[in-house]
Structure formats: structure tokens, C-alpha cells
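Kindly go through one protein, given below as sequence and C-alpha cells. The question is how this chain folds according to its C-alpha cells.

***
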Amino acid sequence: MDRIAKLVPAGPKVDLFKAMEEEPELRKLEQGEAPYRKLLTIARSLEGLSRHASTHASGVVISDRPLVDYLPLFKGTNEEVMTQFTMEQIERLGLIKFDFLGLKTLTVIKHALGLIEKTAGRKIDIDKILWMTRPLTSFAVKAKPQACSSLKVRG
């Protein structure tokens, strides 16, 4: 494995297909002994898959029907409904994803919490604030309210 990994050129957006074009030794291994062929075949099938899951602070997907009709869903550690689809994959399905909190907004919130603690002497635990008490149905302007769905998005 180490021998193969060292043959893959370094750089952004290098995949095995591109590596095979650039490195003749890799092509030889792929056409050679069975263990190398098998390893490269498996590596190609795994390439591009998510390596880990992460939760966006405020990603919301809006749909005209229940989201389960469009994409796979699961429950997160806090029972939140989630998908591992990226924004691009969600858009290809004809759905809309909004990111309501950007990193800049999160920085402003962190700064505000620090100011509150410094000036008022109160430490606020952001995780204990109840942000939403019901699904975001008010964002559906022309859709039936009960058809809208909200969830946190992974990926």
C-alpha cells in the first residue's frame, strides 16, 4: 500500500484516474499481480466517498414533499434529522439548501457571548439555548407549509 501511495502524485484534485495517466508504474501495477489489481480496484470504488460526517451549524433543506421522498435521512446524536448529501447533491435533486449561519456570524456570536460575560458577569451556555421550537415552515412562500422540512446537513 505504501508503495502505491508514494506513486500517486501530490497536489490538489488528484484522483486515481489522473494518477494512472501521469504515472506509468501505477498502470503497470494495475495490470500486474492480483493483490495490486484488487487494491487499486477497491481504491477507485472508494475514492470520493465521504471519509467522515460533520454537522453544519444551520443548514436547512426545503422541499415540496417529505425529504425522505428525495434522499436518505438518519437521526444524529441529538435526535436531529440529518442527511450526508452535500449542497451540490441536494441541488441536483431539485431541492433548496440554505445556510443560515456562516462562520462570520458564529464569530460575532462568540464575541457577543464574551462581551456579556465580561460586562455582566454571566456566562451563557450557547448549547442550552432553544433555537427552534418547531420546523421552519414559514420559509415556504408558495409551498404547502406541512410539505416543508428542515434538517441539519452533513458534508
Notes: Residues 59-153 form one domain. The chain has two domains: 2-46, 59-153.
